[in-house]
Write a structure and sequence with these properties.
alpha/beta; about 250 residues; elongated; about 35% helix
């Protein structure tokens, strides 16, 4: 099989099965695992898959920059946001992550809700100007323009001085084995710092992120309270997460 044919075969496997196991492909095609791994490196270099130990997984469409992300699955995000907003009770202190789904949550909060929102996202803070009874605390630091959030030592230091009832966490990848992932190491560390200051952490996971992976792990499954997703209950990844004991909140 020519290299171009192998490439198409790998992409077809990824689309149909949601993963590639290098040793299985090597046995199927009668080639070495090294050849398969080289092909996967090439595909990963083009942003067409996320390499993991033993093979590859679909790459998340949410790793693009903030501006491009706003056009990715907006209806899915609105469904997730509506369910997430329902978790915020009057008087709660909530940490809202950055990202376009978190921004949708800010817009979905009732206009008259009295609560306190802590965020490191300037777009989220600006959206809450329309909510007169919401107190807003911005966490300062270096602006990570790719995701429109602050990060770095100053932001982490500010996080240590807050406590919250709830953290609504955004990620770019959700996978039963690879866990909750994002595309930047510093952003992943920031999310862990935020989660450590909240009593409960719920993941905002619109369906285009389900079954995908990014490079950096954020949190293990046992450290979250639940996952909010619009992916249907018969989605194979959702079924596996449920079997693994993850508390799933459907966003219809």
């Amino acid at each position: 099989m020519l290299a171009a044919e192998r490439r198409e075969h790998l992409l077809d496997l990824l689309a149909r099965q949601g993963k590639i196991v290098a040793k299985d492909v090597a046995a199927e095609l009668g080639i070495s695992e090294d050849s398969v791994r080289r092909d996967l490196r090439d595909l990963a270099g083009e942003g067409l898959c996320q390499r993991v130990y033993g093979g590859a997984l679909p790459v998340s469409p949410a790793v693009v920059d903030y501006g491009a992300r706003r056009t990715v699955a907006p209806d899915n995000k609105r469904k997730v946001a509506a369910t997430a907003a329902g978790l915020v009770r009057p008087g709660n202190v909530v940490i809202l992550d950055g990202g376009t789904t978190a921004l949708a949550v800010a817009h979905a909060l009732p206009r008259d809700l009295a609560c306190t929102v802590i965020t490191h996202s300037p777009p989220v803070a600006t959206a809450l100007l329309e909510h007169p009874r919401a107190e807003v605390f911005m966490l300062g630091g270096r602006l990570f323009k790719h995701s429109a959030v602050t990060c770095g030592a100053a932001t982490v230091e500010a996080v240590r001085n807050v406590s919250a009832d709830l953290f609504l966490l955004g990620v770019t990848g959700v996978h039963p084995e690879e866990g909750l992932t994002t595309g930047d190491a510093e952003d992943a560390a920031m999310k862990r710092a935020l989660a450590a200051r909240a009593a409960d952490t719920y993941v905002l996971a619109s369906s285009e992120k389900i079954g995908t992976a990014s490079r950096y792990r954020v949190l293990p499954w046992e450290e979250i309270s639940g996952l909010i997703t619009d992916a249907g209950p018969h989605n194979p990844v959702v079924e596996q997460l449920a079997a693994n004991g993850v508390d799933l909140l459907p966003a219809d």
